[in-house]
Each structure stands twice: as structure tokens, then as C-alpha cells.
Amino acid sequence: MTTKIWISNAGYEKAKASIEESLKKLKTDYVDLLLIHQPFGDYYGTYRAMEEAYKAGKARAIGVSNFYPDRYIDIAHFAEVVPAVNQVETHVFQQQKVAREYLAKHNTQIMSWGPFAEGKNDFFNTPVLKEIGAKYGKSVAQVALRFLLQNGVVVIPKSTHEERMQENFNVFDFVLTDEEMKQMEVLDTGKSLFFSHYSPETVEWFMSIV
Questions:
Q1: 115-135 tens-digit pLDDT
Q2: 34-45: per-residue pLDDT in tens?
Q3: What are phi and psi of 178, to 5 degrees?
Q4: In sequence order, which residues have a C-beta less than 8 Å from that of residue 78 and are 6 or more positions away?
Q5: HSE-up of 193 (CA within 13 Å, CB side)?
Q6: DSSP assignment of 121-163, as one string?
Q7: What sign results for the dihedral spanned by CA atoms 111, 117, 118, 119?
Q8: Which of 63, 150, 162, 176 allows an S-S link to 85, with CB 3.0 to 4.6 Å?
């Protein structure tokens, strides 16, 4: 079970109250994973409250979400409990190569949200993914998930269709070759298909909702 602390609850006191409220709503004494949703506001205070929750057994693991390498390095350096997870946009078009390098240095697990890029860039018709999928009798989605898994990325694929959920689980009966991995690596643009946390417009929008 995972829950996140939203930007409107940033800061030690608000985050502490938010954690208790989440536990109450979830009717549980602890969550498996507790994350900061966005790297804005007083996330240092938020993280202190999360560290306390972790030490008190209210969270089995704590981490961050959407923290780019610069902000991740900053919080990891000053934290008593290094983030166990950083949940970020990761897919074949945004492979987070730099982030993965720095997360590995601190033993933080990268977790992908949007492993299918929500269909952007005509994702499900990407020629190389279709070609590789045909070889193994797998869908584009399965090939994309396998690529991430072989790169050490934990994935969170979303679907409302039971058959697709089952399909997403069936990715452990084949292995991509080094050549196939290289073919997919060149799809990386190194850019977000949604929004950049480095963009002043993006930051202004987040500030507008606090």
C-alpha cells in the first residue's frame, strides 16, 4: 500500500497531520511506501515528518516522486533515511539514464510512472517495439515493460481492463537480447512527454495551487 503527501501538505506540521489522516482513511497502522508527491514547497520539513513516521513503524519505506537528479541528490545528502524509492516518469522515450546513475549511487530504487507514456508519441505503434514483440509473440506494452525491468526499473502500468492487467504480468517468460536493448535505447529523447520540473511555467502552476 502506497500513499503520497501532496504539495498543499508540505512542511513538517502539515505533513505529520497528513500522514495521520492518510492512515486513518486507509484504516491501517502503516503503509508500505510513503512518498513526497512533488519536489516543491517545504519538502525538507515534509521529509523530516516522513522519517519520524518511518522510525515509528508507520511507513515501512519512504521516498520521493518526481525528484530530478539535482533535487534528489540534495535531499539524499541531508536525509537521515535515504529515499528508498524515486518514482518518476520513465518509459522508452524518457529512459532517465542520468537519474538511474545517481539513484544507483545511493541505492535508491527508480520506479516508473507512465511506463507506456500514456500513449503519447504514438507509443503503441512504435515500429521497433512492434518488430521485437512479433519475434516473441508479445505486445508492444509487454516489450516496453520488459525493457524497463531489464534496466532495473520497477514499473507501475495502469489499466482498467482485466485482460490488459493480466498481459502486463506476463513479461517474465522472455528476455530481450543485448542488441534488442540497444535498439530500444536509441528511442530515448531524454525529455518529458508531460511537463518539466525545470520549467518556470510548471513551477508557477504548482505554486498557484498551494
A1: 999 999 999 999 999 999 999
A2: 999 999 999 999
A3: -60, -40
A4: 44
A5: 22
A6: GGGGG-HHHHHHHHHHT--HHHHHHHHHHHTT-EEE---S-HH
A7: negative
A8: 63
